[in-house]
Amino acid sequence: MLSNNLTMYKLWELVQPHPFKPNSNQEKAILHTQGPLFLTAGPGSGKTRVLLWRTLNLIVFHDVKPEEIFLGTFTEKAAFQLQEGLRSLLGIVTNITGKPYDISGMYVGTIHSLCQKLLKERRLSNNDKKIITPVLKDQLGQYFYISKSSYWKKITQVGDFTGDANFIINQYFDKGSNSKHKAVINCMSLFNRFSEEYLDPILAKGKVDNEVLDGLIDMYTYYKDSLHEAGKLPQTDLSLIQQQALDVLANSYNSEQIFKHVIIDEYQDTNTIQEKLVFKLASGHNNICVVGDDDQALYRFRGATVENFVDFPSRCQQYFGCDAEEIPLDINYRSRQQIVDFYGNFINSTNWRKASGTGFYRIHNKNIKAHSQDANTSIVVSTPAKPEHVCSEIASLVKKLVDTNKVQDPNQIAFLYPSLKSPHVEKMIGALEQVGLKVYAPRARRFLEVPEAVAVFGIYLKIFGQPVRGAFPGADYKNFHDWMDKCVNVADQLIEADTSLDEYVRERQEEIEKVTSDHRILLEVVEQNQWDLSQPYDIGLMKRALYGARGLSGTAKKALGNIYFERIIEKRIAENKPFSLKYVVNAASSVDWSVLDLFYRLCIFNHFKTMLDLAEQGEDEGPVYSMGLITQYLARFTEEYASVITAQFLLNDKFQNTFFTGFLYSLFRLGESEHEDANDPFPKGRIPFLTIHQSKGLEFPVVVLGNPRKDDNGPQRVETIVSPLLNKKGEPLDRMSEFDIMRMFYVALSRAKNLMIIAHYKGTGQRLNEPFKTILNGNVARIPRFDINTLPEVKEDVDELPKNYSYTSDYLLYQRCPRQYMVFRKYGFIPSRSQTMFFGSVVHKTIEDLHYLLMSRRQK
């Protein structure tokens, strides 16, 4: 019994300065503790708070241990918010009762991350032995793995195609093309879908009467087997890791007893394998709670199956033989009344009834109500006109909103589009800039084309040299080399304007020439002595000859003669793990920085330092956010290819081919900006441009739907390929695209708090989706007649969840260096192995890192 008569009701009141007052349905959901629970949560209905308080109720008032709760979220950001909120609330409980709580063992995160955790869960091991956790490849890592030339050659041979494999694969998916890049992307989409559907390749082949699909299934089998190649650390991808977790659960005698409660957020976005997984986890106690909104199901292209949510009650009967209690969270606390009515009428305008006449493809009879009683105009539409006029009119309204302080910052106005690869986006950006407003739209183009990326990689091209433009066909190849030309031109301008930068670039060029010269000299010594580079390094036999090589630089000699390095060599020999001669030659002829280190060294020069200054002063955060994204890609290169740049890597244009025409060209072709990130920032002083998918789960005081058109091109090709291989019923293929478009626009329309602005294009080549065509041509409020004085003031956002700060990772880091805290904690910069030029500190994690640190000091 808790002391001081603590109750949930008292605890709600203790959360200051904003006590929580749940409505009746929220309270029922929070206090529900036994059996399946089905929460249908409309936009802005406070579901995050409900999940937080429900979890708190289980831990504090029902003695459920945190490690007995499995809480799956859609993003790591959502998981972090729940963890921090839970820590804060439990801290309040501890202050009252004196009872401490430890949630470090709690399962909270994305289902993918929790599957990783399950794979190394000792409670699931029948023999209590440590399980080797596979290395997880994300989408980008999967692409690099499959597209590697040697691997792609092997896997397409397995497909046993008659003719050009690339052309045959692409033709099967869409249209003929010999593009390897497109073939890899097509295979990835199919492989991932096979994995998400838990498809057995052998059984699938029995249903196939197409030679190309038969070959693709063989390729999928080879792909899965190759990830577990004997003698190598096992690997997996985001789709397969769920299969592996389910297999672990199936083979464990106590898997059904580990978790007393399974809670899954955004359940409408789960796939087939995830449904099997969560019901397996909950089967011991039948306590499964799912939260979601089928009208916000956007991720079919990632394998999501909305039927998991719509049919959840019947699935509970199927798996558990019992009913689920259904509680609707149907009060919108986010938006003004007209906005709620508008998106409700919009989604209901489509016929969701099943072809059989019985049942619906969505949760029927929803009644989302606005908590706000403000019925003034909150939906306005532009004058129907050509794009140029519409964009100008909307830009003028936005400018007026900013100038009259109807928003506290331009980043509170979001522009949403079905796709940012649209001429309407370019026109709107131009119109906003014309009235003096800055935008943040790194994903409107390829990210590599933003000014910050052009400047950084231009300097890299000057230092390492620009790859030669070949005579290869294709627009992508030409555009990429045009981009490199642009980067070099910008770099030339920066170098001309900054003599210090000019000197630094020349020093790095000379350093590269020096280490490559040293490498050739050392290889000549190896050849003259008829040594094998793979043999162990013998100090007594080899050091003198290498050290005394004619023409060898003093830097290389100091590296070879370094007493600390010799001690490490001797220690490795004693451990029977000697360095190879090749390793020593490379170590003595390598630069002392990685591509990420180089980035941080560039940050001391005026052009790049100014970006940090602007952010620190609160004037403009756009450039520094882009710089943070650059560090993420550079860190990715060091993970995938090389953390150290050796002369061997630099010789024969190998680095150029790997970094520029390999890594960066892949990002360029992928149009990696299409890889949406829920954690993308919204810099102060700039108006964000987002895809509607990116906006899911977010809210803004003002939202502009910049293009109410999305063409219905029918189901994705992967759907038509996989559907005949599955033994399940779902939404009909001929209506999938229609449903998905409606859900997408529903998400867009429900993001706004105070004002929703809709573009109404008219003229040659312009068209509106239904029901927009009917609605916008009816009686709607137009921008010219809209009185912005009717808009309420934007109140300062109050975080739904309490914040929890760490003394060591927040306060002490800020005290040590405010700028370091700013870039790493706020702007998402990835730390390099060393930022000696940037922060004056070096961090090393392994003995080899220590070695390279010593090597970096060889000139001292």
UniProtKB/TrEMBL annotation:
InterPro entries: DExx_box_DNA_helicase_dom_sf, DNA_helicase_UvrD-like_C, DNA_helicase_UvrD/REP, P-loop_NTPase, UvrD-like_ATP-bd. Its EC number is 5.6.2.4. It catalyses: Couples ATP hydrolysis with the unwinding of duplex DNA by translocating in the 3'-5' direction; ATP + H2O = ADP + phosphate + H(+). PROSITE patterns: UVRD_HELICASE_ATP_BIND. It is an enzyme of class 5 (isomerase). ATP binds at A41, G42, P43, G44, S45, G46, K47, T48. GO terms for biological process: recombinational repair. CDD domains: DEXQc_UvrD. Keywords: ATP-binding, DNA-binding, Helicase, Hydrolase, Isomerase, Nucleotide-binding. GO terms for cellular component: cytosol; DNA helicase complex. Residues 20-336 form the UvrD-like helicase ATP-binding domain. It holds the Pfam family UvrD_C. One of its GO terms (molecular function) is ATP binding. Belongs to the helicase family. UvrD subfamily. This is DNA 3'-5' helicase. It comes from Dulcicalothrix desertica PCC 7102. The lineage of its organism: Bacteria, Bacillati, Cyanobacteriota, Cyanophyceae, Nostocales.
